[in-house]
Amino acid sequence: MDLKRPIIRDLQHWRLAPQRKPLVLLGARQVGKTSALKALGRQEFREIAYLNFEERPLARDLFKAALTPQ
To answer: How many domains does the chain have?
Structure first.
């Protein structure tokens, strides 16, 4: 699926940012967020981590404690 949406361009700009931070994408349901992120992952990265907290509630436990980037 080839998505020609402005969000793809925005995500590519995020990827190229020299000091980019982790990405959390929020928005309305059924507008293509997941499809856009998966397309970006396929096109731009060798490996990605995708966590869907609705499908795998136990994944939430990874983020319950305070996380330090160091």
So the answer is: 1
Q: 1-4 long-range contacts, Cβ below 8 Å, gap at least 24?
A: 1/35, 1/39, 2/39, 3/32, 3/35, 3/36, 3/39
For residue 15, the 8-state DSSP code is H
What's the pTM value of the predicted model, to 2 decimals? Answer: 0.61
Q: Is residue 70 part of a domain?
A: no
Q: Tell me: the pLDDT tens digits for 57-67?
A: 888 887 777 76
Amino acid at 12: Q
Distance CA 8, CA 40 (A): 7
In a domain, 1, yes or no: no
